[in-house]
Amino acid sequence: MSEKSISVIISTYNSKEWLKKVMIGYNQQTLQNFEMVIADDGSRQDTKDMIEAFPANYPITHVWHEDNGFQKSQILNKAILACNTDYIIMSDGDCIPRKDFIAVHEKYREPGCFLSGGYYKLTMPISEKIDEELIKNQTCFNLNWLLQNGLKKTFKNNKLNSFGKKATFLNWITPTKATWNGHNASGWKKDILAVNGFDERMQYGGQDRELGERLINLGIKSKQIRYSAIVIHLDHPRGYMNKESWEINNNIRRNTRSKNVNFTPFGIKKD
Q1: Is 201 inside any structural domain?
Q2: Residue 71, SS3?
Q3: Are 233 and 249 in contact (CB under 8 A)?
């Protein structure tokens, strides 16, 4: 197998059917020069069995730890260390990539920058309808098919049918900030290590944005690719959301911004 130049970290937790759809999406990539590192926050054995049986076109490393509640920051840090390349894309086990997803991240990457993509959220009925064939033939990204299956008409639909100059223009005019988004972002491994990865004090709520804020404080610029690098987000319940973790995380983020913090002592390397 030829040497890979990109690592894709996919986070997951007890959602093997959604994860399988995502892995099928990566089998369709026009650019196959990547490895996948699955950051598994304590899933049951059935997730491991599915991963091992999956006929992937790409090498997979399954990084797992015991279930101890929502500890995504911890498992992502372990996954970062498991990456064998110098460039890392991060996404989630509920985000199916369009076939040009890897190619777009490779095209726009540059030294001293990280890339900020978005996602297109689907309803549960549409999420459940998407099967292997619809992913293989890319119909699940077809706006007409989605509209026929209950998708509402909004400006956000431009994410699904913008290419070339139109996508570049929309990336330029969007009021959305180019933040590090856990569902669709990429950067250089050396930069992520320089800020010491994710802050492991942070549970659900903005820990990805805080990583990006430290990268920016380090002098890394952010580039907007939300209309170019496309993933569709499969719906699911969010039982791990709680007010306390949001408050803790917001306090950490305020400190990062106000004091220009570019390194966390609660990350990959511990004091």
Answers
A1: yes
A2: coil
A3: no
